[in-house]
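Researcher: Structure prediction, please.
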Amino acid sequence: MKVLSIVGARPQFIKAFPLSAALRGDHEEVLVHTGQHYDTGLSEVFFEELAIPEPDHHLGVGSDTHGRQTGRMMIELEALCERESPDAVLVYGDTNSTLAGAIVAAKGDPLLCHVEAGLRSYNRAMPEEINRVLTDHVSDVLCVPTERARSNLASEGIAEGVSVTGDVMYDAIRWARERAADTAEILAELGVSEGEYVLATVHRAGNTDDRGRLEAILRTLSGLSKPVVLPAHPRTVARIEDFGIEDATAGIRLIEPVGYLDFVRLLDGADRVATDSGGVQKEAFFLDTPCVTLREETEWVETVEAGWNSLVGTDPEAIRAALIGDRDRPPKPSLYGDGTAAEAIVAALAEAVGGSGTETGAESGAGSEIEPESGTAGEER
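Model: Predicted structure follows.
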């Protein structure tokens, strides 16, 4: 089968790493980078580190309003689908790239496969929630990471085409953790010691575009006794400057965005992480790092219920208490599969397409070896 895979943002590059390997064992993949994340720190370095194949097409859309960005992507993706005639379009997660690919596929001939389907924060003020809900409701193949995600879809009347595959990001991080421990020198470069610092990420518009929320987060992090390392998204840096609150970062080590392996090493070595990222919440769970989520809700409810994730919003006292309190956590349940999600996704998609006369990744073992080859290029965080 021929699959057009659409990526555009850091979490999608990571998910594409094991899935591209599984797909290309027996099928044809056309990889499209929309350019939603477009600088080297948020894009190219991820392709290079993970040896994801060079994108066959780079749309170079870049930043814009939600409507204009999504519209430009749709125009380019529709033309690509007409030229490539794929059997299926594969989209990941909940970005504007996801929604653009979903609408184009739903109005055209290819089947639509949504990886990481069924997640819900139940906060329609979040653009990501709109993207994931709309994508789910037009998808033909819905690959969900957990039983809860399947339940979410069932409650909305979606039952056909749903497969519980496990989480493809777990496939990637199992490899990355070992590799990062052997190769990443980021802790030494920053002068921080294992377990003696807090990692932070702040990039969601709900936090960065609201001066009060952003300043509350930064001043609270600045006041901690442990060093705080914050790889700063360009949006966050711009808002700090726009709001004139540079002094709120006085106690924080603001650094440039880092590659995937360096980030995994930072997350693995941190005492705990404070973040507003959905992906980082889950990565922290995989790496046994307690997570403090700077939001009022999460798509990854299971991590909260398991006692490994605390929802604190932007309340300074709640943030501080969660970051300096007891680090001990209850035994961690297995929630996201066994690290073979990529093969399960390929098998589900091949079955839906109707078979191609070749073995699927699940049958042949394609994708079980995701060690990148040196010298290939392409990706972000």
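Model: Residues 356-381 have pLDDT under 50 and may be disordered.
Researcher: Thanks, that helps.
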